[in-house]
Amino acid sequence: MKRHTNLGFARLITLFLPLLLLSVAEPLHARQATLVPDVFIVALGLEDNRATETLLEAALYFSGTTAERTASTRELMLGAMERARALRESEPDEYSRGEAIVALMHGGFLKRYGEYDTTLDAAMLEGRYNCVSSAVLFMLLAREAGLDTRGEATKDHAFCTVYLSDGKIVDVETTNPHGWDPGSKKAFQDSFGKTTGFSYVPPANYAARSELQEGELVILIAHNRSTILERQAKWSMALTLTVDVYAFWPSAKTLELLVDRINNYVADLARREAWVEALQIVEKAESLHGSHPKLEKLLATAGMAILGGILREGDSDRSLAAIREAEGKGWLGATDRNEMLTLVFTKKAEIARKSGGWLAAWQMLAESASVYPGIAALGKVAELSRVNWTYEVHNKFAGLYNAKKFAAALAVLDDALSILPAEKLFLEDRKAAMAALKQ
Question: In the structure, what pLDDT confidence band is assigned to residue 155 with cuts at 50, 70 and 90?
Answer without folding.
Answer: confident
